[in-house]
Write a sequence for this structure.
């Protein structure tokens, strides 16, 4: 196994922090035992938790106004893999990469697979892109792709998705995520039903090419790049499309793709109930699709989402196996630091949700005891599970204090020397 940061440095830093961690861990263990919870079982769950990292999140992101590249930007998917290896080595819970095509296209996928394997990294969902025109493209996606009025454009978009599946098979992926920006900017510009019918026909054509052991995840989004209507605008259009397309076609929930204050945890509950929850793009937002760091603004909402997910596991909900992934844009932070932080913050929401006394909650719910039901969730959320997360990292050879160890490694400064900015590398989303 190859490590981008010296394991000796990680061990040296961990040795300094272990005595205090052990004290905090033992104290939490005693507290949880009094609540009928076994900290050993919780740490195993923390060690098993994993979330995929978006390849496109490793470069500095920007907005339509500007992008301010950081030092040592990854210039290609091979360097993005190295940065993802750092995120996994420091966080201990990010062992898969989600690529985006054609941004991450290579000539030799076996070479890329070998490159990732040496770091112990795998490949999760592959993402297609029919929201940008490529230089050598026949038809433009200006007026849409899978729902375009012109059959030739739809055929081109379908062919691209089938090609992405072929590339994904070479990397060992088992899921394709399909997000399209199709929609309209003017009332009357698009016939809602005909556009949706064209989309459904295209989705079925992609599903026809889906290997038996794969899933297809449809991602909804309220607006942008379309600003009046979007063909897959909300979970309603999404679940209808997933139900129409096929059993292994499911809905993906990107947290930032909803209007402010939408009850996302209830959407998750509905998708679980109808076996149509494919997975998540975790991030946070205050206004639009801000793609900010997960749990940085609404940690209680993220906890409530995991409360639904843990409840489904607790009830042994059939067909429940959602894929977890981050989807963020890092405009003012070191992307590696934000992704380490965010992976851990999503892991934190999961472990806190495991602390919920579900028997008591069920009782309070049937007794309509709202305050005690709410307090039962708050008791879990207000528990500081940091010692469990840190001990899980230590046990996996990751860093007890991930950001301090990453900064002490000087990895970013070394990357800056190794990756001279040719001004051309535009790895983040703009
Ligand atoms: C759309 C989206 C989608 C990706 C893109 C990079 O906003 O969330 O998941 O394809 O970001
Ligand atoms: Mn997304």
């Amino acid at each position: 196994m190859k490590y981008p940061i010296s394991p000796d440095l990680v061990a040296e830093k961990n040795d300094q922090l272990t005595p205090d961690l052990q004290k905090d861990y033992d104290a939490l263990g005693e507290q949880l035992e009094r609540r009928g919870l076994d900290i050993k079982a919780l740490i195993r769950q923390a060690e098993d938790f994993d979330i995929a990292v978006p390849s496109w999140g490793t470069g500095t992101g920007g907005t339509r106004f500007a992008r301010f590249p950081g030092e040592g930007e990854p210039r290609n998917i091979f360097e993005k893999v190295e940065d993802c290896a750092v995120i996994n080595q420091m966080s201990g819970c990010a062992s898969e990469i989600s690529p985006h095509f054609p941004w991450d296209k290579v000539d030799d996928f076996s070479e890329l697979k070998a490159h990732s394997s040496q770091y112990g990294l795998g490949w999760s969902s592959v993402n297609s892109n029919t929201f940008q025109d490529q230089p050598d493209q026949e038809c433009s996606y200006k007026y849409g792709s899978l729902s375009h009025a012109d059959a030739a454009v739809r055929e081109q978009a379908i062919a691209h998705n089938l090609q992405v599946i072929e590339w994904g098979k070479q990397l060992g992926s088992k899921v394709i995520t399909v997000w399209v920006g199709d929609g309209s900017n003017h009332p009357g510009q698009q016939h809602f039903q005909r556009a949706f019918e064209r989309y459904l026909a295209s989705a079925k054509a992609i599903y026809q090419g889906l290997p038996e052991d794969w899933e297809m995840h449809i991602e909804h989004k309220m607006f942008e790049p379309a600003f009046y209507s979007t063909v897959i605008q909300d979970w309603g259009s999404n679940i209808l499309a997933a139900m129409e397309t096929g059993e292994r076609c499911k809905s993906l929930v990107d947290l930032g793709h909803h209007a402010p204050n939408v009850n996302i945890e209830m959407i998750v509950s509905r998708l679980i109930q109808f076996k149509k929850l494919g997975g998540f793009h975790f991030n946070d937002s205050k206004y639009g699709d801000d793609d900010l760091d997960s749990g940085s603004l609404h940690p209680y909402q993220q906890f409530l989402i995991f409360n639904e997910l843990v409840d489904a596991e607790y009830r042994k909900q059939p067909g429940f196996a959602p894929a977890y992934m981050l989807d963020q844009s890092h405009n003012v932070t070191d992307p590696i630091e934000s992704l380490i932080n965010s992976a851990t913050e999503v892991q934190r929401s999961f472990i806190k949700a495991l602390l919920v006394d579900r028997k008591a909650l069920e009782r309070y719910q049937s007794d309509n005891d709202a305050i005690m039901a709410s307090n039962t969730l708050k008791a879990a959320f207000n528990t500081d599970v940091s010692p469990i997360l840190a001990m899980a990292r230590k046990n996996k050879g990751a860093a007890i204090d991930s950001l301090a160890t990453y900064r002490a490694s000087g990895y970013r400064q070394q990357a800056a020397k190794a990756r001279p900015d040719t001004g051309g590398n535009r790895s983040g989303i703009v």
In short: The two ends are 34 Å apart (CA to CA). Residues 219, 254, 281, 327 surround manganese (II) ion (ligand 2) (CB under 6 Å). The mean pLDDT is 97. The longest helix spans residues 7-34.
